[in-house]
Amino acid sequence: MASTSPKSEDGVELLQPLHIEQMDEETSQDGETASARVETIDPSRKRLFSKELRCMMYGFGDDQNPYTESVDLLEDLVIEYITEVTQKAMEIGKTGRVAVEDIMHHVRKDPRKYARVKDLLSMNEELKKARKAFDEVKYAGI
């Protein structure tokens, strides 16, 4: 029986829009309860992190050129996670704004995430100081 699904230019069968479902009363790691929801992810939307995710997947042991569907699925999950964290951070702090402290407050119960956020923030400060020192040396020599 022939498949009527759309195919990519290299003949690979394309997947239909992804439907993500969660069951009622599903409890997340931080003890919050998620209500039932169904999302349809638009396959035609612009991909923001494809290049970075491909590199990360390769770094974690995937093929150097992973399947586009795998990258797209992973990107959908990343976008969903970022959206959830941002929305929860907006509920914590000032209305309509997201501050670093709000994200820190949100991840405080997960020691690995909290430690990673602290590491990234301290590294960001070190980079700012290094850039400032470099700029001062560069302009002092002029």
Provide a descriptive summary of the structure in words.
The protein has 142 residues and is mainly α. 51% of the residues lie in helices and 10% in strands. It has 4 helices and 4 strands, in the order ββββαααα. A hairpin with a 5-residue loop joins strand 2 (26-27) and strand 3 (33-34). The N and C termini lie far apart (74 Å).
Main sheet overview: 2 strands, antiparallel
How many E strands?
A: 4
Order of helices and strands: EEEEHHHH
Distance between the termini: 74 Å
Helix content: 40-55%
In spatial order, strands of the major sheet run: 1-4
Low-pLDDT segments? 15-30, 32-38
What is the radius of gyration? 21 Å
Report the principal-axis shape: extended
Strand percent estimate: 5-15%
Number of helices: 4
What is the typical, i.e. mean, pLDDT? 78
Structural class: mainly alpha
Could you outline the blueprint of secondary structure elements for this entry?
Blueprint: E1 18-22, E2 26-27, E3 33-34, E4 37-41, H1 50-59, H2 68-92, H3 100-107, H4 111-140
Antiparallel strand pairs: 1-4, 2-3
Helix pairs in contact: 1-2, 2-3
